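User: Need the bound-state model for zinc ion:
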Amino acid sequence: MPELPEVTVILDDIRSLAAGKEVFRAEVFREDVSNAGVKEFPRRLVGRTLQGVERRGKILMLDFGDVVGVVHLVISGRVERLSEWREPDKEHTAVIEFESGPESGPVVLAFKKLWLGYFDLYEPGHIEEHPLISRLGPDPFSREFSPEYLRSVFERKAAIKGLLLDQSVVAGLGNIYVDEVLFAAKVHPTRKANTLDSEEIKAVYSASRDILGRAIEMRGTTFDSYHDAFGESGKFQYQLKVFARDGESCYVCGTEIQKLRVAGRGTHVCPTCQPS
Ligand SMILES: [Zn+2]
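Assistant: Bound-state model below.
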């Protein structure tokens, strides 16, 4: 599933390919791909210019002036540049063609496999009514995200991993990066959040920013479906210390990495570096 770094990379690609360009054609495959429906989707987008892009948690926001595209990729969704227009189908669930530039051909972007996701259209003033966006916690790169903020949300008995996965606590983290953050902070994922001391809270804070920042620089993590808009894989999978390394040796202490289930998710931990 694309998490904060992958969504950041995809948005950067969309910005570099299509910002400032007018929509020439836009279609969705089925009614359930967009809240606008099959007929309204083109009517509301064609002729508008992509003015900018923004990320809210793992959600892509495409600013078309009087209309904002709210795109959630969920698990299988991808964005890919196509060489030419094609009608949407089961694989290419939404397709947008932007005008040709003087030095480039048309830019066609396919929003693929939005089976659980969507490409909704909102009016700019109504974004906060979106059920997912209204509940998002602070972004890890925002000023509100601080050790003090984490201390306040960690005053609960819940497992630390479950809290960090909760988008209303922190926006943008998912299973891969939470495992990596907790390993870097030397905190076991089943620890109750209210048992973390100040140093551990600071370590979780710093590791979140550090790991997400490095993952963006390496253009994300590719296991199966994630690729950037040019079809290229990310490179951060080579930097992972625990995720998907169960049965292998910890790079720090040599102990075998274990896989557990925490908060309903496969969870990777070094039992020595992260005592429970
Ligand atoms: Zn270790």
